[in-house]
Write a structure and sequence with these properties.
seven-stranded mixed beta sheet; 8 helices; 28% strand; binds zinc ion; 2 domains
Length: 302
């Protein structure tokens, strides 16, 4: 699983940093998280294929997180997309998009399935054989959601022979039960594959914490991730402003990574007042050692 940053700035584009958008590649698909202005251009620039895109997640309806969406949706239609697309976002976005289509007297050539996110609630949004995506509420000035992407283990499952013996699974069935089949014994008892196997290697976990003030209210949803992306709009000296505007500082992001037991932290959503991002790295490193400042166009292995 990889993460490509298409934009990592807050409200205003500045210093070659675009507003928020990022691509997670998992299995044979890519998913898009947030869609700030210029996302379709950034996708072209960084070689991201819309044909692999079936799911788009929008954290909240501040413009720097979705102003690129109408353009992207429209371009995919013009380029001949017919495969359906799933969009997960706060409910008000549906009316906004409908109104734009109505005013333009146009239609998309593909089905756009709108899945409203419920304010204040965590939920499982997608689950397929390659990955799952869950949303969780964060604390911003308006309804806002973080996302947890969990990869299904690409390495299959490992057999536990002692468990097989305990449940009286015959050796000729080992291969099948390892591949997910259940075994029915002569006495009618069914031995479930998951009782006698474990994932060979766990899949990777990525959490996107969207725009949020410092809060540990969603920690339980982001425990022990391989990579945690947390906003750090401001440096620590602006902690008061950050709290007033429901944003976080570099040190607060680092504290969340530490409390949540993340393996790695990636900082983003920088205020356009900062040209040099090195101080973000330095401040966060005082609290959490494995931290990086996100860079547009960069691809991170999760
Ligand atoms: Zn926001």
């Amino acid at each position: 699983m990889t993460l490509t940053i298409l934009g990592n700035n807050s409200a205003l584009p500045a210093f070659d940093r675009h507003p928020t958008a990022q691509i997670v590649s998992v299995g044979s698909e890519v998913i898009l998280i947030d869609c700030g202005e210029g996302t379709q251009i950034q996708m072209q620039l960084y070689g991201q294929k819309w044909r692999k895109l079936n799911h788009i997640f929008i954290s909240h309806l501040h413009g720097d997180h979705y102003f690129g969406l109408p353009g992207l949706l429209n371009s995919m239609s013009l380029l001949g997309r017919t495969q359906p697309l799933n969009l997960y976002a706060p409910i008000a976005l549906q009316a906004i998009l409908d109104q734009m289509m109505l005013a333009a007297d146009s239609q998309l050539n593909y089905s756009l399935h709108f899945h409203p996110l419920t304010a204040g609630e965590a939920s499982l949004l997608v689950e397929n054989k390659s990955f799952s995506v869950k949303s969780f509420p964060v604390e911003h000035r308006i309804d806002c959601h973080g996302f947890l992407v969990e990869e299904k283990s690409p390495h299959g499952r490992k057999l536990l022979p002692e468990k097989c013996r305990e449940y009286q699974v015959p050796t000729y069935f080992y291969h099948r039960i390892k591949n997910g089949e259940d075994y029915e014994r002569n006495d009618g008892f069914t031995v479930k594959s998951e009782w006698v196997t474990i994932p060979a290697l766990p899949g990777k976990k990525y959490a996107y914490c969207a725009d949020t003030r410092y809060t540990e209210s969603f920690i339980q949803h982001i425990l022990h991730t391989d990579l945690l992306y947390h906003e750090s709009t401001y440096l620590d000296e602006e902690a008061e402003k950050a709290a007033q505007r429901f944003h976080s500082t570099s040190k607060q992001a680092a504290k969340i990574a530490k409390v949540a037991g993340a393996k790695k932290l990636l900082l983003g959503h920088f205020s356009s007042k900062y040209k040099d991002l090195q101080p973000f790295q330095e401040e966060a490193s005082e609290i959490f050692s494995n931290v990086r400042v996100s860079k547009e166009g960069e691809c991170y292995e999760i």
